Structure formats: structure tokens, C-alpha cells
């Protein structure tokens, strides 16, 4: 069996090495995508355009507005005279949030019952959520600053953020995209492997050999796994050296677990390739599965926050287990003692996908 697998692996390596341009694109493409994703996607939106209706024009109102601009979360783009003008500025798209400060704002502060009106454009969810969170935090901090000279409140909460003390978006986003890009590359490498042989007519040459379906699946996987391994090394280098994301875990353990995670993507790609009849069908199935995996596999949202049905669906996607591994090792320095459940799940998925792909290949021949 090993001799037959080795012969097929040599054949696959020769075919892969002939197309130099595709091989280079496969190695460099994920690294470029990681840089683009990390630069473009941010959960904390800053410099949100803000329009102000300050009817108080007091030192207290100016101090309150200064807290908004000094946070760098907001930029005052216009000053209007009334709440109606505030509404019109948001309706026109000039600003994403507006603040209306009443004329007796200073007197209200003196009584300890001050209030302002915050209008937020809810048509853009990411911006509106960031605006609400930032405005609430700034207002609370401003209120605490007023109480502090009077002795403060009865409770002092000391907050300590672990692993990512500055809450840098890149530290959170990059590990997830490294896991996703490795999985996507692995699936793309093998999603056309079998169906391409069928369309080229070379599948008959394989059928007359004593190679078994499972041996063919393994042989198709090994060369692609080597390419994915090299791409994984490059992604880690880009993440740590290019984006400044720390890596606190064991690199050999990370590479070993990455091979298993990439193997799951390769197995799923072989399942697609064995089930599809044409390369166009395989590409469409690959795109559909990748799109679903982005939302239920933990790339953008934690899986525990999903509805029950989607949470169960996410259990069959390798990224559900691979992303916690990458994040845990990069940011927390986690070892196998903390990640063995995710590692076992990836091993089970890897074996299951290879077996199912072999079964689908046999059925397609029948």
C-alpha cells in the first residue's frame, strides 16, 4: 500500500511543480490577503463624524464635548443651533451621531441630574454600535470625573485585561484569519483534484491501477499538505513580523496542529471534488461552503453566540476548533493540555472527511 501511495504522491508533486505561477500564487496569496484583511477590518471604529447642538455654551458643555474629541473616537464636523438641524445633518449623511446639549446643562450638573440627547444613525450597524459604546464610555468617565473631587462613589472597580491589554483589533483578527486562510487554501487545493482528473480523461488511467480509493485520497492530500504547511509558515511570519501580533506558544506544536487543521480542509475539498461532476460545480460548492463557514465557524462571531441550529452546524467546520487553537497559542501561550479537545476534534474530522471522500469517489465510479 505504501508503495502505491508513494507513486501517486510523486505524480501529484510533478503535476503541482509544473505550474510555477499557480504554486507561487498559492503560497503568496494568503499572506497578501492576511495583510489586506488586517488593515481593512476593525471592530473599533474611530473618528466618527459628529454634529453638535450646544445650546448651553458653557464651560461645562465645552468640557463635555472636549472629552469626545480627545478620545479620537469622534470628530466634530459641524455645529448647529437646534435639535431639528441635528436631525437633518444625520439624515443627509453629514454625520453618524449628534449631541444636543440643553441650555441649562451647567445648572443640571450642579444639581447632579444632567442629561443630554444622543442621536445615532442606526443604518450602519458597525458604526452605530461603536458610536453607542464609545459615547456611553465617555459620558460615564466624564460623570466619574465630576464625582471624584467629592470623594467618589462607594465602589472602585480595577479592570485588568489579559493577553491583549490594549485591545488591539489586529491581535484578535489576525489569528482568526490565519486559521481561515489556511483552511480555505487547503480546501481550494483539493476541491478540483478528482473532478479535474475526470474532465481530463486521466481518471481511467488511475482506475486500471490497483490503487484503492482511500489510497488515492491520501496521495492527493500529501502534496497539498506540504504547500499548505509552507503557506502556514509564511502566514505566521507575516502575522508576527508584519502585523506585530505576538506568538507565545510552542511553534512545533502549532505547526503540528496546523497540519491537522489544514488536513481537514483538504479532506473536505476531496469530498467536494469526488461529489462534483464538473470543475464548475466543484467551484460553486467550494464557494458556498466557505461562505457558510465564515459565519458559523467562528471567524466573525463566537460560535456560542449563534442560534442553536447554527451552533450545531458549526461543529462540522474545522475553523470552529482551529481558530481557538491559533488564538490560544498566539495570545495565551496555551499548550496541548488546554487544547487537546480541539485537537481531537480536528483529528476526527480529518479521518471522517477522508473516509467520506473515498466513499463518494467509489459511488461516483459506480
Concise structural overview:
By secondary structure, the protein is α/β, with parallel strands linked by helices. Helix content is 68%, strand content 6%. The chain has a four-stranded mixed β-sheet, with helices on both faces.
Could you explain how this protein is built, in words?
This protein has helices at 2-18, 20-40, 59-70, 83-91, 105-111, 125-147, 169-190, 193-200, 203-207, 213-242, 251-275, 279-296, 308-314, 319-332, 336-365; strands at 48-54, 74-79, 97-101, 117-120. By secondary structure, it is of the alpha/beta class. It has a 4-stranded mixed β-sheet, sandwiched between helices. Helix 3 (59-70) links the parallel strand 1 and strand 2. Helix 7 (169-190) runs antiparallel to helix 10 (213-242) and helix 8 runs parallel beside helix 11. The protein is elongated and about 90 Å long. The chain starts with a helix and ends with a helix.
The radius of gyration over CA amounts to 27 Å
Which regions have little confidence, pLDDT < 50, spanning 5+ residues? Answer: 151-157
The main β sheet shows up as: 4 strands, mixed
Number of extended strands: 4
Strand content: 5-15%
What count of helical segments does DSSP give?
15
User: Structural class of the secondary elements?
Assistant: alpha/beta
Structural descriptors:
single chain; 366 residues; alpha/beta; four-stranded mixed β-sheet; elongated
SSE blueprint:
Elements (H helix, E strand, L loop, with lengths): L1 H17 L1 H21 L7 E7 L4 H12 L3 E6 L3 H9 L5 E5 L3 H7 L5 E4 L4 H23 L21 H22 L2 H8 L2 H5 L5 H30 L8 H25 L3 H18 L11 H7 L4 H14 L3 H30 L1
Parallel strand pairs: 1-2, 1-3
Antiparallel strand pairs: 3-4
Amino acid at each position: 500500500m505504501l508503495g502505491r501511495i508513494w507513486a501517486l504522491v510523486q505524480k501529484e508533486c510533478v503535476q503541482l511543480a509544473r505550474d510555477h505561477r499557480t504554486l507561487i500564487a498559492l503560497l503568496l496569496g494568503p499572506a497578501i490577503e492576511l495583510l489586506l484583511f488586517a488593515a481593512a477590518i476593525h471592530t473599533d471604529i474611530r473618528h466618527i463624524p459628529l454634529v453638535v447642538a450646544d445650546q448651553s455654551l458653557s464651560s461645562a458643555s465645552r468640557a463635555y464635548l472636549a472629552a469626545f474629541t480627545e478620545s479620537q473616537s469622534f470628530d466634530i464636523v459641524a455645529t448647529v443651533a437646534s435639535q431639528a438641524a441635528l436631525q437633518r445633518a444625520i439624515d443627509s449623511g453629514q454625520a453618524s451621531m449628534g449631541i444636543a446639549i440643553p441650555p441649562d446643562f451647567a445648572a443640571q450638573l450642579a444639581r447632579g441630574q444632567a442629561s443630554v440627547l444622543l442621536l445615532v444613525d442606526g443604518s450602519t450597524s458597525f458604526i452605530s454600535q461603536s458610536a453607542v459604546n464609545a459615547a456611553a464610555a465617555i459620558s460615564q468617565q466624564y460623570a466619574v470625573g465630576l464625582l471624584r473631587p467629592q470623594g467618589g462613589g462607594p465602589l472602585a472597580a480595577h479592570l485588568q485585561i489579559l493577553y491583549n491589554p490594549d485591545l488591539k483589533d489586529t491581535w484578535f483578527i489576525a489569528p482568526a484569519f490565519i486559521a481561515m486562510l489556511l483552511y480555505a487554501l487547503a480546501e481550494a487545493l483539493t476541491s478540483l483534484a478528482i473532478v479535474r482528473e475526470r474532465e481530463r480523461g486521466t481518471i481511467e488511467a488511475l482506475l486500471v491501477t490497483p490503487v484503492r480509493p482511500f489510497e488515492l485520497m491520501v496521495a492527493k492530500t500529501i502534496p497539498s499538505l506540504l504547500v499548505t504547511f509552507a503557506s502556514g509558515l509564511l502566514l505566521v511570519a507575516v502575522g508576527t513580523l508584519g502585523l506585530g501580533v505576538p506568538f507565545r506558544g510552542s511553534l512545533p506544536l502549532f505547526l503540528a496542529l496546523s497540519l491537522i487543521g489544514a488536513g481537514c480542509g483538504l479532506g473536505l475539498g476531496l469530498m467536494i471534488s469526488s461529489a462534483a461532476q464538473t470543475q464548475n460545480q466543484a467551484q460553486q460548492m467550494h464557494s458556498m461552503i466557505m461562505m457558510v463557514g465564515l459565519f458559523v465557524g467562528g471567524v466573525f462571531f463566537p460560535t456560542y453566540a449563534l442560534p442553536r441550529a447554527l451552533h450545531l452546524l458549526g461543529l462540522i467546520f474545522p475553523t470552529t476548533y482551529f481558530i481557538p487553537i491559533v488564538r490560544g497559542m498566539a495570545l495565551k501561550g496555551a499548550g496541548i493540555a488546554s487544547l487537546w479537545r480541539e485537537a481531537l476534534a480536528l483529528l476526527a474530522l480529518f479521518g471522517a472527511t477522508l473516509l467520506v471522500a473515498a466513499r463518494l469517489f467509489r459511488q461516483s465510479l459506480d
